Structure formats: C-alpha cells, structure tokens
Amino acid sequence: MPIRTPAAAAAISDWLLTDGRDLVFTAMVDSFAWRLRAAGVPIDRMVVSLRVLSSSVLAVAVSWRPGEPLSFRTFDYVDRDSGFYQRSPFRVIQTTGKPLVIDLAETPDDAFGIVPELKADGYRHYAAVPLFFADGAVNAVTFASKDDEGFTSEAMAFIDRLMPALSAVLEIRTYHRVLREVLATYVGRGPAEQIVRGTVHRGEVTRIKAALMFGDLRGFTALSTKLRPEETADVLNRYFDILVPAVTAEGGEVLKFIGDGLLAIFEDGVEGGPAEACARALRAAEAALAAGVSLEANGAPVRFGIALHHGEVAYGNVGAIDRLDFTVVGRDVNVVSRLSGLCSILGKPLLVSDVFAGAVADTPFRTLGAHRVRGLDAPLDVFEPAAG
After folding, report:
1. I need a labelling partner for 52 at 20 to 30 A (CA). Which of 246, 300, 307, 378 fits?
2. What would be the CATH architecture of the domain defined by 6-187?
C-alpha cells in the first residue's frame, strides 16, 4: 500500500467506520496509532483527549506509545482552577479551531505546560489537532515525534483526512459514556443501566426484595433557617458525602435524595437472601454514623438518623406519561420512611424494624417497643442494635 496517499487515508477512515468502530476503545486507539505509523506518519506518542459530562470529571485522556501499555488520565472538576487548561495547547486549538504544530527545539519551555515534559522524553515535534463533534464540542488528539523531519505539511494533510472519521467514531463512544454517566449521577448506576437497555416506559416495574435504608438530618428545617442557602447546600453535600460512599461500599444503590433524606436499597443476593442484604445495609449504616460524628455547621454538631427495614417493593418507572421517576414504591417504603421519623422522636441514631432485626442473626438487637406512626394501621415494632 502506498504511504501517506489519499488511498491510504481512505483505507484507514473506512476501517475506523467499520471494524475499528466495533473494537473496545483501547484496542481501537492502539490499532489506529499503529496504522498511522504503517502509513509513514512518524508518531511516537498519541493522546486522545475527550471532554465528558460528569459530576466529578472534566475530561479523560488515553495515551499511546509504541510497545507500551496504554495509560489513562482524568482531569478532575476539583482541579478546574489549577491553570492546567490555560497552559495547554488544547486552549489554542479550541479557540482557533485549527491544528497547532510546533518544533520543540525552537519552542521555549514556558510556551505550554507540556513542553518541558516532551523535551525531557526526547520528542522533537508536537502537533495538536482539533476533533469537531456534531454538537459543536471541540476535543483533541495530539501527536509527538522523535523523528528529525517531524510533522511536515504532507504528514499533517494525511492526518487531517482522517479526522472526520475519527471524530465520528469518538463522538459515538463519548456520548454512550456520557449517557450512562449522567443517568448514573441522577438516578443511580443500577437504574441507569436498565434505562439504557430500554426500560423507559411508565408501568415497567418489577418486584424485588431488598433491605431498605432511609436517612435524614435531625432538625434540618430549623438549621436551614439559620444558614444562607449556599451554606445549607454545603451542609447537605457534606452529609451526603458521608452516606453515599458508605452505601456504595456495601453494594447498595442510592435511589433518590428527598430534601435532607436519602433512600437506598440493598437488593437480596441470589444466594445470601435477606440475611446478606440486611447485613450489608447494617454495615453501611454503622459506617456512615461513625463517619458522621465530625459533621458540623456553624461550629455545632449536625446529627442524622438512619432507619433500616426489609421488604418487597415495586422497582421501576413511576410518574406521568412524559415525566418519569425510576424508584421503588410500596408499603415497605412507607415503613422505612416512618421508622426514620422515629429516630428523632426517640433520640436514636439507628433504628430497625422487627423484620430487619430477625434477618440479621449474628447481631443482637433490643426492643424499643411498638409505636404508632402516620399512615400505618398497626404499630411498628422498633429495635436498635444492643450495643447502641
């Protein structure tokens, strides 16, 4: 096959849009880089950088070097003000919409933040090329070379012919990831996977058995009247930063935030059944309460209560025909919610139902009596861990 000809570029583009598109992302990047080298483009390093829509990550990058494993890097939201972007070639190509090609020997170290690193690794030439997505987003692929000749106009013209196909394939992959990440951020990873698989119609619900957790802050209404709205949001964020990791560490699924409340489920396993699900929920609750002793606002401690129950719920789409919520509903959801309200009334951080207490055989509980609550005909038998 001729090197760096229109026919060679067309062959790589066709591969990207057919066989390459079907490969896993890392295999596609690796094979694309090798095909460039085989066509005579002198690349010794390639980085594909993609912006993502995530609550914690701004962008991801995968780096290729011949004969080395691919490496990944994330650019986190918390580091958005570090100045990395302002010192990056990405800012130039996103502003101009044009490739940037530099001879590193003639480029001062302070031109871009990456220049000293490239020089230290022995690279002679560097090129950053924009990737245009259909929605107007501009991402980037960069190349570095140790070759004396580097990225000539002929080589850049060859690369340019490949960018529409590469952009199309990467856009599809990026938005598949974005769809899953955004859904998982707002509805939880389990519901997100079901929604992506097509569970999007009202009434599509399944019955599941699970341990249910409901946590809420004590005296939050009174506390919020003393705080500015931004301070109230900060307290909630720090509170949920305690509960959510504890839930996910035990394989639970956070389904929704209801003001200062959190509803989570720990679905019964195939083998462990209720005992295993309840044990995970109990460990999560105890871990959250232990971590929560440091939570405060305006110098005063902020306390929360957690209620645990086990039962059967309807899990799926509930709502209006064009505005749905993926959640759990049923009597047992009401039970755990009412049980949570008793945490404040009884002054207890952790309460469980009789069903839950009976499922966890190796943890002793003591009774706190039966209590009438709104919406339930019979009183609730309430327990707490014997060590509580």
Report:
1. 246
2. 2-Layer Sandwich (3.30)
